[in-house]
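Same chain as my last thread, 260 residues:
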Amino acid sequence: MEDAITTTTAIEKPSMAMAMQALESAAFAAWPSEHSSDLNGWNLRLDRGYTKRANSLNATAHSQHLSEADLDSVEARFLQLGLTPTIRLTSFSSAPEADELLEQRGYRHSDLSLVMTRALSGADDRGQEKQTVLEGAEEWLEAFQAISGKSGDDQTIHLDILRRIKHPVAWAAHLVSGSPQCCGLGVLVGQNLGLFDIATHADHQRQGLAQQLCRGLLAWGHRRGARNAFLQVIAANSFAVRLYEKLGFQVAYKYWYRIR
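reply #2:
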């Protein structure tokens, strides 16, 4: 638990907290849930499952204290939709006491994750957009399923989320003889480029495909006005973290989930 709530002096500064919140807002816009509402400065995002990012109560730089009655109401909303009550906390939240309250209420800690960022510049234009940009959400999801092996009803929900994205998207994949080996998304929200769903087929990992694909997405974003890039990665995925560090990304802040 100590890692989850550790913050740096810089993150504690209000200006930095607001900068981190701007990244959060860009990430929410890039990965839209079916329903979103404000609850005393908390962002309540509800969908039909599949991803915790779209099905959670999210702490923000403006979050106010959560009372037991607030939590009762939030839990009821989740349960009415057949969802597990899930709360996402950040290292810069204005309600740090929420973590202890949720611990006492029986919420388990899950998925400590890193938000990593880097600035973009003209140098990124040298990255070749060698990946194939697919036609849209349906064609890209077919490639993602072939690469990841994921299937089932939750992929229908995944497709709905992808179709809901209203910002410019690079539906990228690395194909060999029409067979997808690596894929990922670039979503441009203002001057922020978010990288999502970076995946490499098990038979083609550690060949530099993900790095090449990410460089192509960075080039795609910068040429369309992006000045910053961000991504989210589970902290325990050391291979992915090292890959993103090689690409120049650095940790900006952390987040984790509390699940009832």
